[in-house]
Write a structure and sequence with these properties.
394 residues; mainly beta; 3 domains; 5 helices; globular; disordered N terminus
Amino acid sequence: MKKLILCLILLPSLGWAQLSPFEVSGYIKDMVSTFKFPFLDKRLNEELVHARLNSRWYPAEPLVASLEVRFRAIYGSSVEKIPNYLDQIKSHHEFEQLDAVLWNRRKTIGYAQIDRLWLDYTSGNLEMTLGRQRIAWGTALVWNVIDLFNPQSILDFDYEEKPGADAIRLQYYTGAVTKVELAAKPGKSKDRTIVAGLFSINAFGYDFYGMAGIRSNRWLAGAAWAGAIRKAGFRGEVLISEAPKQKSYPPFPYLFLPGSESFGTKNPAVNAVLSADYTFSNSLYIHTELLYNNNGVSRNAGLLYWQALQLGMLSPARWSIYQEFSYDITPLIRGSVFAIHNPDDKSSIVVPYLTWSLAENLDLTILSFLSSGKRFTEYGDYGTSFFLRLKYSF
C-alpha cells in the first residue's frame, strides 16, 4: 500500500503532464496549538505540518480526472497523551483506505492519504462522476441536515475540503440552474449504504431543492431553499426520516450519571435548520443559524457526541444556536468571532479568529476555542485551545 501511495503522489510530477493538459495546486500549512481540557491536569501542545497536492488531468474533452493527496506530520504531547490519537485523525472509508502511516512514535505521527480520486465524464446535459469525491448537498452555511454523505463540524476548521465519499454520482442538467441528481455510496452492509436522489429548481428568485433516499437502512426525505429577503441571505433545510435505531445507554457504558439521557424515539425524526446572513456596506458581516433535532437530548449531550455521529446527527442536542460577526479591520486583516450555544444545557463555545494576508499566497491565522459549561454538557469539556497557523498556497 505504501508503494501505491508513493507512486500516486509522484505521478503528477512525472508523466501525466507530458501526455495532456494538467493542473497542480495545493498548500503547505504549519500550525502550532495548545490545549487545556478540564479533565486533564496538564496543558497539551502540538505542532502540525499539513500539506496538500491537488491535481486535475484532462485527457479528452468529455473526461476529467482528479487526484488529491493529503499529508500530515504531527508532533507534541497531544500525540502521547490522547488515547488512540492515530485512529482519531485517520479518515475511515468502507473499502480501500488509500492511506499510509509513514511513522508512529511516542510523540510524533506521519500520515498520508489519497483524499480525492475520481473520474468525471460529461455528455451533453449528463455528468457522471465515479470515485472518491465530495458530494456536498445543502444550502445552510454551518449545518447541512440534507448532506447525507459527509456532514461535518464547523469546528474542524483546518480541513477546508472536507472528507470525500467513495461513490457514483449522476447529474442531469435540465436548465442553467436546475438539475436532477442521483448518488450512491455502497457499503459492506445495508446499514452502511447510502442511495439518494435530489432535484433543484429556481422560482421566485429562490433555489429550491427536494431529495429522498435511504441511509443506514432508514428512509428519509428532505427539502431546502436559498434566496434573499431585502438583500439578506435566507436559507433553510428540513430532513424527515425514520427514527434511528439505537440503544438506550450512553456510548461509555461505565458512566451512569444522574440525569443521563439517551436519544428520543420520536418517529419520524425531524431535523431542521434556518440560516440568515447580511453584509453591511462597511464590510460588517452578520450570520445567524438555528438547528433543531426532535430526538436530541437536553442534558449531558457531551456523552452522546460519538453516538450522534454514528446515527447521522449533526449534534446530539435538541437545539443549537450559531452567531457570527466579521469585519475587515484593514484591507489585509479580517477579524471574526462566532459562537455556538446549547440553550438546554447552557454550554457554549466561542471562537474568535483573525486572518492576515502577509503576502501573495501567504496567510496568517490566529484562532481560539473558549468553552463554557458544566462537565458532560455539549461544550463543557472542550476547555480552551489556541492556534497559530501559517499557510502558503500555490
